[in-house]
Design a protein that fits this description.
The complex is a heterodimer.
Chain A: H1 3-22, H2 25-46, H3 52-70, H4 74-89, H5 97-111, H6 118-129, H7 134-140, H8 145-161, H9 171-194, H10 200-220, H11 225-238, H12 241-244, H13 264-279, H14 285-297, H15 307-320, H16 324-337, H17 340-352, H18 361-372, H19 376-386, H20 393-409
Chain B: E1 2-9, H1 11-15, H2 19-38, E2 42-47, E3 55-60, E4 63-68, E5 77-85, H3 89-98, E6 106-111
Antiparallel strand pairs in B: 1-5, 1-6, 2-5, 3-4
The chains are: A mainly alpha, B alpha+beta.
């Protein structure tokens, strides 16, 4: 058996059940590690047990009881021991598929509890639900390992000390709480997809984990339109992953991407999911973005894209979720749908409001539209303004290349 | 677990509320207190007189320093509290959300440290 793969795919599930049984995040994590160590020793010679998951769960449970019995501060642990013994005494058959699924959902809701800081929710979900190591998370977010470890310790401390429950919220709270969970999944995906820098492999992993979480949520709480919209959105974005960056690691704009490199199966699935989300009445941030992504993904060529529809969707987005970044996207869509001049005028208006001064996005968009109009000198000025604001190498290289092209033509 | 629900609201805003509305609010508080007493969540609670009546005491180098006013100048001031028994933070949050003052001010939910319990923050 592929132990690595098993570990990655099953850790989250096993851990979630152990946390419920033992009532303690840290103890559950440590005991699972010990159970894995035993498995690594035994399985190769004695063969993999019929149900490796419940084997690991019961091994970890017994290890926990041993540990608690050995502990000197018996009094403090007495209550926990009682709980753990009770858990260990449960018949094996109770660890059933459905229960494990419920445990995962409980764990997701606990890790995404609104009383935890947002960044801690993201980190804790990746660490506990997805089983990504603290080192990997810190590399993905460009944060020192010690800082990330501290963040996780604090979050687990708050869960314990403030009495954050380990459960799926009741029906009347589910909608609100699910929104919070979706936001965490969305942030994990974006960190992987848009991340300003960091390890490419780990970022790829973040996207895959976010999609997996999206699938778990849609599978375990069926019929939630916004959750479906988010899953569809992620699949559609992810379908372009191989075409977004060239062999040399350069950023390739949507209109210049080799569409044959897009993953057709993901586009088909993503589009279907988005359509079903819209049929169920999804109309939030994810649904609108997903509808835009679906139009892009299903266009045969950049020119054949339904830009008018995309501009209209950005219009809805900008009205429901006012943000200068969305307005920049809207202006670009207007430039494609109606006229470049009209798009440029919208960008100039955004610039007057001076809200986006620290981001390269606005001057880069202005530069691109000026370039399309053949106003090369103005375009060059805008590219030069965008360059120092770009936050990652791929973007900087892209802007420099464009600037170089214009300068040669002059 | 026990939680302290600290009710913060702006005294300046409170002063603007007409007496009839204020009375309605007190009546609402009475009803809420009765409800959480009946449900077994109520442990204690009191409204506080305004911060104009507050005194702050510090002892430095064995010397008592007494100053006028609250410990910190903030936009919203502590105006009362409930001490409740709740099964977890979610229940405490649900109860806090039902406090009439939550609609105009903010409720801070703080778990009570049980005796002998050391907390790593």
């Amino acid at each position: 058996m592929d132990f690595e793969k098993f570990h990655r795919e099953e850790s989250g599930r096993i851990l979630s059940t152990l946390i419920r049984l033992l009532g303690d995040f840290d103890l559950a994590e440590e005991m699972l590690q010990e159970a894995y160590a035993v498995a690594l020793q035994k399985w190769p010679s004695e063969g993999t047990p019929a149900n490796p998951r419940s084997w690991l769960i019961s091994t970890a449970r017994y290890k926990a009881i041993d540990r608690l019995r050995r502990e000197q501060s018996f009094e403090r642990k007495a209550e926990q021991l009682a709980k753990t013994s009770q858990a260990a005494a449960q018949p094996e058959t109770e660890i059933e598929e459905e229960m494990v699924a419920d445990d995962r959902l409980r764990l997701i809701f606990t890790c995404c509890h609104p009383s935890l800081p947002l960044e801690a929710r993201v980190a804790l979900t990746l660490r506990t639900v997805c089983g990504i190591t603290t080192e990997e998370i810190s590399r993905a977010f460009l944060i020192p390992v010690a800082t990330m470890a501290q963040r996780l310790v604090r979050a687990k401390g708050k869960i314990r000390e403030a009495g954050i429950p380990y459960r799926v919220p009741p029906q009347e709270e589910l909608r609100d709480r699910l929104d919070g969970v979706l936001l965490v999944v969305y942030l994990i995906f974006n960190e992987g997809y848009l991340a300003s820098s960091g390890d490419a492999l780990i970022r790829r992993e973040l996207c895959a984990e976010a999609i997996r979480l999206g699938r778990v949520l849609c599978g375990l709480i069926p019929g939630q339109a916004e959750a479906l919209a988010l899953l569809g959105l992620m699949l559609l974005h992810d379908s372009r992953r191989d075409a977004r960056v060239s062999a040399d690691g350069d950023l390739v704009l949507l209109e210049e991407q080799d569409r044959s490199q897009w993953h057709a199966e993901e586009i088909r699935e993503g589009t279907e999911i988005v359509e079903s989300a819209l049929r169920r009445g999804a109309s939030g941030m994810y649904a609108l973005q997903a509808a835009i992504a679906a139009l892009h993904a299903n266009a045969k060529t950049a020119g054949g894209t339904d830009w008018a529809q995309i501009a209209a969707l950005y219009d809805l987005l900008a009205r429901a979720y006012p943000s200068p970044v969305i307005e920049v996207n809207r202006a670009v869509a207007v430039a494609m749908a109606r006229s470049v001049e009209e798009g440029l005028a919208l960008l100039d208006e955004i610039e007057k409001r001076e809200e986006l001064e620290e981001f390269h996005l606005l001057p880069a968009a202005q530069a691109d539209l000026l370039r399309r109009l053949g106003r090369k000198e103005e375009a060059a000025v805008a590219y030069r303004r965008a360059l120092p604001l770009a936050t990652n190498d791929i973007e900087r290289r892209f802007l420099r290349r464009r600037l170089g092209e214009i300068e040669i033509q002059n | 677990m026990q939680y302290l629900l600290l009710i913060y609201r702006s005294e300046a805003e409170m002063a603007k509320i007409p007496p009839a509305e204020l009375n309605a609010m007190y009546a609402e508080y009475g009803k809420f207190t009765q409800e959480i007493t009946d449900s077994g969540n109520y442990v204690g609670g009191n409204p506080l007189k305004p911060t104009t009546t507050a005194t702050t005491v510090r002892v430095r180098d064995s010397k008592r320093v007494v100053t006028d006013g609250p410990f910190a100048e903030t936009k919203e001031q502590l105006g009362g509290y409930y001490l409740i028994e709740a099964k977890d933070l979610d229940q405490a949050i649900s109860i806090a959300a039902r406090i009439p003052g939550a609609r105009v001010g903010s409720i801070e939910v703080r778990p009570i440290m049980s005796r002998g319990q050391a907390v790593q923050a």
